[in-house]
Amino acid sequence: MTNVVTLKINDQDVTGRDDETVLDIARQNNIHIPTMCHLEGLGDIGACRLCMIEFKNSPRMLPACITVVQEGMEIYTHTQRLIDYRKTIVQMMFAEGNHICSVCVTNGHCELQSMAQRLDITHIDQTYRFPKRAVDASHHLYSLDRNRCILCARCVRVCDEIEGAHTWDIMGRGVQAQVITDMAQPWGTSDTCTSCGKCVQVCPTGALFEKGKAVGEMSKRKEFLAYLVSMRESRKAR
Amino acid sequence: MITEELEQLAADEIAQQKKCKHRLFVCMGTGCVSAHSEQVKQALEAEVEKQGLKGDTQIVSGGCQGLCAAGPMVAIEPKGTIYQNVKAEDAAEILEKIDQAPIERLQDPTTDAFFERQTKVVLNLEGRLDPERIEDYIAVGGYSALLKALAEMTPTEVVDQITHSGLRGRGGAGYPTGLKWATVAKARSEHKYVICNGDEGDPGAFMDRSVMEDYPHRVIEGMAIAAYAIGADAGYLYVRAEYPLAVKRLGLAIRQAQKYGLLGENIGGTPFSFRLDIRMGAGAFVCGEETALIASIEGGRGTPRPRPPYPATAGLFGQPTLINNVESYANIAQIIDRGAEWYAAIGTEKSKGTKIFALTGTVKNTGLVEVPMGISLREIIFDIGGGIPNNRAFKAVQTGGPSGGCMPAELLDSPVDYESLKKAGSHMGSGGMIVMDETSCMVDVARYFMEFCMTESCGKCVPCRVGTAQMYDILGKITAGRASLDDLAMLEQLCETVGTMSLCGLGQGAPNPVKSTLHYFHDEYMAHIVDKRCPAGVCKIAAAEGIKA
Question: Which value does ipTM take for this structure?
Fold first, then answer.
């Protein structure tokens, strides 16, 4: 049994069901909270920390994507503190990898790029790490360029939760962490990959892309995910 | 087994022990073993044969006596003589003079304060038992608390006792143990779990290792009582694989307890059943975080997940789960045995009981100490610890592991309790206490801890993964004399972001060593950045480069 609750987001009275998240309610009310690892249709992991929100009279911050609404909550989504932290985190994403937009297949369609624009990030204060990361072009349809990976784990989740193959996973710790296929074998030799391409379509950056695409030509088609999930839900309901 | 049988077993064991005129306890803890205490024990046993003392004198593989710096240690009971730095060659003399005055050569009166100034609850047996024999533990009243709880108390009464004792989580955060138990007890579910967090990983900390090695039954008894109180039927001891002796002894202890019917089905002839298993960590520090630990037991990658939901409502395999630290469980049996009032009388208003610290660094008496809450840092370091060796000056003390802070000499008189340490910019942590003298560079220390956090970050959330690496690089620049004031400003900004925005305690606490050293030792940072010199002479700054800020 779910109940309906009322709460305040940025001093605006809003209403929601008590199984919905703060992010759901905010989006229903046209309040834009930035997200990166979240994707409609996938399980949330609260890892990118961009959707963090503040509560009235509490020093604690929580990620909106997994915080379920409660009666009487008073939430702030865009305090100066939050805006500053978000900028620092997006800068971290840029500094961590090798993101060179001008030569990237997703230039113009990249979620990281548009996030930076939306948050008015014009330059990176942090020192670039310029890591040496491997490219895997062994798959006959797609390529993986780890230099552009921000470890949002959308590919891992879509492959596991939607396709059911669990080809993708994460290996290593800290800045050494990287996405891998099967037991860190070349993607093209993977026994579990079905070549469905879901991972490529949900990837927010140009880390995963279709072969044969030139600079700026790789736009992602994420719509399938919401459609697929809703169709499966309606089938389950029947 | 019921209480009467347990008492009979204890009486038999005591009678057996009384038959021996002397019992020599050779420490077989990891510290003393690495100082070759096994050879000492073998030499003593050979001498017993040779001198024909068999039956009269017993050589026991004992537990840790605390003063690890002076190992191998040998204690002689019932006289209470303690010998330090014992070598195999000393065996003959020790046994020959066993009825005479103690051998002065093997004693050190300057360490008397180390033994006298402590208040021992968890470590009260001071190594005077064989950890691999359940009978030794039963002889000193072991498992009587479990049978008492099962026979005379309701689960609610057990929880109430723990609540009234004022015990707070010994893993570091200091969450009230009674409240945690009550929350899990309230949760409705067919299955509940009890987990013991033995994934101690803070640099310089070895309290939990020692408790698990020396008192495996005390931990098991505490867990069984917890399971009864919250209604759990299964439990896991999560121990890091780097503690092979602890794993071995806990495994042995579980089998012994099962044999006596103190674990398993229908314990003490009651309907209460409790199954206990060991799970080994695979070398990830982050698995000490409770949600990562649960993921690891479930067989997944050891990464934390956001809370809420807390393990108390949805933990292991989605069931309500109680997770406590080793030391917390080790306190339980005595609280039940001796009562909550007795325990609450030790310590301060808000922090009750005792706390074990692993005293290390540049301090004379390194080892394991147990002190009442509220004792000052000065008493621990200078009275019990014997002060700083080599006539050097005290500079700082670091508590709380990689998420703790460094406290300067001005704070030596502040009390050791959860609130005071937090106010000082550090925290209790699991009990590591690293003393540093004037030859330590605080920027270098901060860099060391940041390197630890960077390599142990799981990589799941962005602030911790990238932020710790960026901060480590900036600290490296500072210690190399290549940093500018802009770098320092960036370091402060990263500290704020990583501390506030990270997913779990590892990232949230990672900036603390930097923040506390920046607060108390700001001059040292400025000396590195502006004057291009390291006041302690630790950092190699190439003056020839001549780069100015």
Answer: 0.95
